[in-house]
Design a protein that fits this description.
Rossmann fold; 340 residues; 23% strand; seven-stranded mixed sheet
């Protein structure tokens, strides 16, 4: 099969022919139709995350927003049939037996395997996946539309759930990128009043199209005051999808008393946190890493009902290197999906 392969960290991907994998017990073989390109792919390829760098397999096929059609079933697989339309997310495998899995928090499983990191991902013609962690796609979602929901949509859905967002709250989304524009829609679906915060007018326009009630350009020196004015004291919840240290610092200054900061975007450097401010405001800080299989089913159901729709641009797989370069330069709007 044809695959786009990472042979060494911080080196360009190489398109080449490699053997097509065979599904083992409990696995399925999927003919890939589309795969979203995530910022995580960029960081993994560059070896920029200390926690994941030691476990990143090389050579590696990146990609963890994979959609396609099942073409073969491994022994013991009964929940799928050949021809089923499916998606494969970040979590390739979790044990189902540890304290976290048993508590419904499988994203914390210490034995987890990761699609496009510890095992090969979807930048290829075929993908082998665990049937237990493969999801059926709604009939009314195309492969390209569904792909970004498997990570970008799933992650911000988990963040909003963890932050306990509910109707009537004022929620600010910092960063209107691949994750942020989906977070806006999901927060609106929960009945929240949503503020979109970014540095780029084009992204703020996308936020408006996604239903944001207020737009705030964070380059203003008094952005935190603008957020407090618009919300009558600050947002109840702020979700930061940007990896910017400045975004986090502005977010913490903007929170309403008793508010919640949801950490999603991973900044490459530590952020400054005033313990005095935390105590005085009784702020809560939560974090979200992707989501569970149940979360994914819920996100796909929302998309099937028309509650969330990803802004996508499709490219051929041969442009994978170009897409990663444009992503690093901040030139992408919404989500790019590679199609075979």
């Amino acid at each position: 099969m044809k695959a786009v392969v990472l042979h060494a960290l911080a080196e360009p991907l190489v398109t080449e022919e490699i053997p097509t994998p065979l599904p083992g017990t409990g696995e399925v073989l999927i003919k890939v139709a589309a795969c979203g390109v995530c910022h995580s792919d960029l960081h993994l390829a560059g070896g920029e995350w200390d926690l994941l760098k030691p476990i990143t397999k090389l050579p590696l096929i990146l990609g963890h927003e994979v959609t396609g059609t099942i073409t073969a079933l491994g022994e013991g697989v009964t929940e799928f049939q050949i021809g089923d339309r499916v998606g494969v997310p970040w979590l390739h495998y979790t044990c189902g037996e540890c304290e976290f899995c048993l508590a419904g928090r499988e994203t914390l499983c210490g034995k987890q395997q990761i699609t496009g990191c510890t095992v090969d991902g979807g930048f290829a013609e075929y993908l082998k996946a665990k049937a237990s962690h493969t999801a059926k796609l709604p009939d009314n979602l195309s492969f390209a539309e569904a792909a970004p929901l498997l990570c970008a949509g799933l992650t911000v859905y988990n963040a909003l759930k963890t932050a306990e967002v509910h109707a009537g709250q004022k929620v600010a989304i910092f960063g209107v990128g691949g994750l942020g524009h989906l977070a806006i829609q999901l927060a609106k679906a929960k009945g929240a009043e949503v503020l979109a915060v970014d540095v780029a007018d084009a992204k703020l326009q996308l936020a408006r199209e996604c239903g944001a009630d207020h737009l705030v350009n964070i380059t203003a020196t008094q952005a935190h005051k603008e957020l407090k004015k618009l919300t009558g004291g600050g947002p109840h919840v702020i979700v930061v999808t940007s990896g910017s240290r400045a975004a986090y610092e502005t977010a913490l200054r903007s929170l309403r008393r008793g508010g919640t900061l949801a950490v999603v975007g991973m900044a490459p450097e530590p952020i400054n946190v005033s313990t005095v401010a935390l105590v005085s405001g009784e702020f809560r800080i939560v974090a979200a890493a992707v989501g569970t299989r149940q979360d994914l089913h819920e996100v796909l159901a929302l998309a099937a009902a028309g509650k969330v729709k990803c802004h996508i641009e499709t490219r051929p797989f041969a442009q994978a290197n170009n897409v990663l370069q444009e992503m690093q330069q901040g030139r992408l709007l919404g989500r790019v999906v590679l199609e075979l």
